[in-house]
Amino acid sequence: MKPHPKLRKTIKWTGAAATVLMVVAWIGSGWWGAGWMGQRGDALQVAGGRVLWGHDGGMNFLEFNPGVHFGASNFKFAWWFQWLDNGRPIGHGSAWVVVVPLWALVLMMAFVTAVAWHLDTLAHRRAHAHHCTKCNYDRAGLVAGAACPECGSVPK
Q1: Cβ distance 104 to 69 under 8 Å?
Q2: Global confidence as pTM
Q3: Are 106 and 21 in contact (CB under 8 A)?
Q4: Cβ neighbour number for residue 129 with a 10 Å cutoff
Q5: What are 85's strand-pairing partners?
Q6: Which of 11, 26, 56, 77 could be stapled to 41 by a disulfide with Cβ–Cβ 3.0 to 4.6 Å?
Q7: CA pair distance 124, 131, nearest whole angstrom
Q8: Lowest-confidence pick of 24-38, 56-70, 73-87, 142-156
Q9: CA neighbours closer than 13 Å in the CB half-sphere of residue 19
Q10: Which one of 45-49, 91-95, 110-114, 151-155 scores highest in mean pLDDT?
Q11: Ramachandran region, residue 60 (left: φ > 0; alpha: ψ -120 to 50; beta: rest)
């Protein structure tokens, strides 16, 4: 089953816009951060070139209070993945944090977008492979060296 051309273009352009926004968020997160922590200790934070997701477990492991937080920070980036925990079993006062660097998310988004652009370009080329280069007339069924019946140009 072939994807619809409008769907391909939507994925292509949405992916490009999302990739640009992710790059802006990645660079901006070096100076600014935003985070959320729920009443039960679940947390999500974007700061320092990373996304932090975790659970506090009432241990003040994440060092911020419940609610939404915005603020400035010293410019720094987290360049690698991390897993931190306090060693307790889940549900028994456990605290854990997963840190994913934003560059990895940007890279994945850029790769998917590049694949979408490539597939759309291939589909466009295949759709116009037998068309006249001058007037875009569909030359399917004509002899290879025959002149175009629409404009009279001869293909090379």
Answers
A1: no
A2: 0.70
A3: no
A4: 9
A5: 96
A6: 56
A7: 11
A8: 56-70
A9: 16
A10: 110-114
A11: left
Task: Tell me if 43 sits within 8 A of 84, measured CB to CB.
Answer: no
Among 115, 148, 81, which residue's Cα sits nearest to residue 8?
A: 115
Which residues share a beta bridge with 124?
A: none
Per-residue pLDDT, 95: 81
Token pair recorded at residue 50? 């990373």
Q: Write the CA distances from 42 to 11, 112, 138, integer angstroms.
A: 32, 30, 59
DSSP 38-61: -TTSEEEEEETTEEEEEE-TTS--
What is the rounded distance in angstroms from the CA atom of residue 102 to the CA atom of residue 31?
14
CB 56 within 8 A of CB 43: yes
> Concatenated DSSP letters for 45-111?
EEETTEEEEEE-TTS--S---SEEEEEE--S----S-EEEE-SPPTTSS--EEEEEEHHHHHHHHHH
How confident is residue 61, by pLDDT bands cut at 50, 70 and 90? low
Write down the pLDDT at residue 103.
92
Contacts of 83 (CB under 8 A, 6+ apart): 96, 97, 98, 99
